[in-house]
Amino acid sequence: MSIGTVSNVLTGRRGVRSGKRVAILNAIEALGYVPDAAARSLIARRARPRPPADPATPRLTCVGYVCADHTAQVTVLPHRDDRVTAMAIGKTLGGCAANVAVTAAGLGAPCVIASEVMTLLGDDPDSDWAASLLADRGVVLTSGSRKAGARLSRCIIMVEANGARTIINEPLQVPSEDLEVWLDALGAPTGRHVLHLQGDEIGPLVPLLPRARAQGLRLATHTTHLARSWRSPEKLAELCCLFVAA
Fold this sequence. Notes:
The chain is α/β, with parallel strands linked by helices.
């Protein structure tokens, strides 16, 4: 059997004829083979080739955090000093910026969008996992989104059967310097290009938004996690001036 055929059986990415598949599975069982998580982590770190930019394709850059959502199904939400047992704990990719970018990338024809995320990931295995999932969904990371010594943000969600939930989150702020460096490298967009900011990213990045508009970027945001200091008629009017094109 070729390495590629064995890999296809292990990953399930491509179909393998039943005879070969059974032979490979029997060999795996006989040898007691277990996939090496560390090796898979190294594979995830390999740079993925980015498709050539097409000026005619609209581009979306989402600024915000990417995280691992750990969802625990519980009978009753815990109170102080309670100890509970979860019926199941699932791990999924989360974060408002990631959700917007993945949704845009998945639209497909006739609404093809080149989607990317400006975020803060590290060099830990969880960050490798998140970057790999984003790439599989057609989303790339902007240059500088991965930093040595950093790690992936986490979110813990406890959910009762009736839908009641408690969320413990640790959103990480994208440094304003990252957006400034990105704008320096971008220059003037060659086509339609939207810069989308997660709600809690707005405050620290406000000083750079007029420059982004002047460079030809269209600005967008949503109010998820918007700081309370912005939730007033006066501050919302300020947001309208920043984000709504004249």
